[in-house]
Amino acid sequence: MSESPDPAPPARATRIAAAAKRPARGLIDAYSGEHGVYGVVLVTALIAVAADEETDLDVIAFVVGTTVVFWLAHLYAAAVASRSPRHGRGESLGAALRHGAKHSSGMLLAMLIPSLLLGLGAAGILDEDTAYLIALASGVVLLALIGYANAARNGSRWPWRLLGILATTSLGLVVIALSVLAH
After folding, report:
1. Residue 57: helix, strand or coil by DSSP?
2. Quick check: 121 and 127 in contact, CB under 8 A?
3. Considering the chain, what is the average pLDDT of its residues?
4. Which residue among 52, 76, 123, 144 sits deepest, i.e. has the most Cβ atoms within 10 Å of its Cβ?
């Protein structure tokens, strides 16, 4: 007599699948959080402003340097705000800095994909102008993905997911354009 296959997945496979989802969920959460969206807008605007830089390596240095300065400003704000009786959580300065670093990590994450794309131009793998344009476009693609992911997580049906893409992308482009004009 043959045994029928067990329709339930083995416990190990279920644990592996769940573990694989955690980093992906963390990545999506970091990008779609307030600081991740801010970071994507900031980095895309910085790349646009850096159009006159000589090389893609110069653009990378400008984007990374400026983004790190803005991230440090957010850490500073978290530390100062944690000392305020109104906003304080009664935590130590170190805990406030750790909380601020975790909360604002999306800003740093936002510069990775465009910097890697610019790096392809700096390394000669892509033409520098092509790498620059792809890095610039990656910000728009990231905003579209964020809009879709947020709508999907909220259980929205596909028409609302498309609307999420359009709204997030178009409003992001307006903010990016305003940021470029301000510089």
Report:
1. helix
2. yes
3. 85
4. 144
Q: Which pairs from 59-68 meet CB under 8 Å and 24+ separation? A: 59/118, 59/132, 59/135, 60/115, 60/118, 60/119, 60/122, 63/111, 63/114, 63/115, 63/118, 64/111, 64/115, 66/42, 67/39, 67/42, 67/43, 67/107, 67/108, 67/110, 67/111, 68/108
Gyration radius from the chain CA atoms: 20
Q: How confident is the model at residue 83 (pLDDT cuts 50, 70, 90)?
A: confident
Contact 40, 143 (CB under 8 A): yes
Tokens encoding 6? 């067990």
Query: Which helix (H) or strand (E) is 14 found in, with range?
Result: helix 11-32
Structure token pair of residue 133: 């344009």
Whole-model pTM: value is 0.80
